[in-house]
């Protein structure tokens, strides 16, 4: 039997208020809100390069640290940091040097962790 491999990667983020997070993440990523079918809202890269981000509204609150998080590679920490903070993110740690890459750990409006990382190739 031939191996079946996925055709695309979709990132799913559980949330309490998918509409509020859709607004935050669409602006933070430069994505478009492409469909909403409760309990889901899909965000897609208008250039078709990045994976879809699917926000799934769930009844239970977030508990503890995320086991998986998003890293946003940016060409410079500023103005990227000021931009996401103005959208509603809050800084949890940093900026700091992480193996030669300036990094800041943040939380989205619901407390989901993500990082801004400056890579030379970004």
Automatic annotation (TrEMBL):
InterPro entries named in the record: Glyas_Bleomycin-R_OHBP_Dase, Glyoxalase_6, VOC_core
Identification of the protein by name: VOC family protein
Organism: Streptomyces chrestomyceticus
Domain VOC: 6-119
Parts of the chain that traverse the membrane: none
């Amino acid at each position: 039997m031939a191996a079946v491999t996925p055709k695309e990667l979709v990132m799913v983020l559980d949330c309490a208020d998918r509409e509020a997070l859709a607004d935050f993440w669409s602006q933070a990523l430069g994505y478009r809100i492409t469909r909403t079918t409760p309990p889901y809202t899909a965000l897609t890269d208008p250039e078709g390069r990045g994976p879809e981000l699917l926000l799934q509204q769930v009844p239970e609150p977030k508990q503890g640290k995320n086991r998986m998080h998003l890293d946003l590679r940016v060409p410079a920490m500023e103005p990227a940091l000021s931009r996401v903070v103005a959208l509603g993110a809050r800084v949890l740690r940093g900026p700091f040097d992480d193996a030669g890459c300036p990094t800041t750990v943040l939380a989205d409006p619901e407390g989901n962790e993500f990082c801004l990382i400056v890579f030379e190739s970004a």
